[in-house]
Prior knowledge:
Elements: E1 4-11, H1 17-25, E2 28-35, E3 38-46, H2 47-57, E4 62-67, E5 74-83, E6 90-97, E7 104-113, H3 115-120, E8 124-127, E9 131-136, E10 145-148, E11 157-159, E12 170-171, E13 178-183, H4 185-188, H5 194-205
Parallel strand pairs: 1-4, 2-6, 7-10
Antiparallel strand pairs: 1-3, 2-3, 4-5, 5-6, 7-9, 8-13, 9-12, 11-13
Amino acid sequence: MAAEVALACKIREKKTKGYLNEMLKQEWVPGIVYGQEQIPVPVFINRRDLYKKMSSYGTRGIFALDIEGTNKPVMALVREVQKQPLSGHIIHIDFFTINMAEKISSKVGVYIEGEEELIKKGGILQAGIKEVEVSCLPKDLPEIFTVDVSTLDIGDRIIIADLILPEGVELNEAAETIICSVLSPSKATGTETGEEEVEAGQEQEE
């Protein structure tokens, strides 16, 4: 199950551009915490702490936000991350609060392993979707789905329906959606077999 990631947040009170620029220079990332039962709260998060947590846990987990001046952490999901196009630095982040007793819909990443064995067989892996949307209680949210392709052969594929779901977790995606498939080198490069090329030439002559 996805771990709760603790993250300290500083209240963002002033809204002037000068104040914002100064906080950015001091390595603070602006953000907003909001939800159905949550008055929007502008915050700052320490850039180094944010990057450290995201490098370890990504953006799909549950964040326990320790907001300055509150008595207990606020549980939330990352709703949106805005990045500077050139540097890739995070310039704003949105958190959506959740109720731990109510089901949520969230994306879970798909990790593919065993591709090396597939290559030894002469197969080429064609990846489909990289994440799957599920519904469950926050405590049951999977950290990741791992798909092993080492036993697959050319022509095989894995679809969403093949995923092993933990108890209490439901899929919000079409069951036939392809996660990955195994192609032969010729199909992967778009080339045809000699026989197919001959048939195509005969059709053109006719």
